[in-house]
Amino acid sequence: MRHFRQEQSALFRHLLAVAEGMLWVGGGGALCAGLLLVTGVLPAAVMHGFGAVLWCGGAFMAGRRAGLHGRRHGLLSGLCCGGSLLLVLLCGTVLLRETAAPGYWVRCLLLLPSGASGGVLGVNSRASRPLRRRRIGRHN
Which of 7, 87, 114, 127 is deepest in the core (most CB within 10 A)? Predict the structure, then answer.
């Protein structure tokens, strides 16, 4: 493999995108924990709602990063990022031996469209398009 660059590998881009999504979930979880310390005990429905928003936001950001750096196949890369975060969520549930909350499966089903929409927006954003060079001087 001549001139292989690690950052150009699709798998490496996907892993970076999923890591960014996990950072989003972790950072948002830390903010929610701070909010919980300030306000006191919140109802379980509110906490499950926060969790759903954090995981969907993480899937969206992961899909956006994958689409932004891949510059093609945004829907597929976003679905892969949402599916990867879904696997992380399922593995965490199994490892912690938790029972599924009432809205757990709804949250799982929301991860895939969130990642797909982030991937499509990442591909179609202006930042992902290369800049065109302007000719100065000659006008054809």
Answer: 114
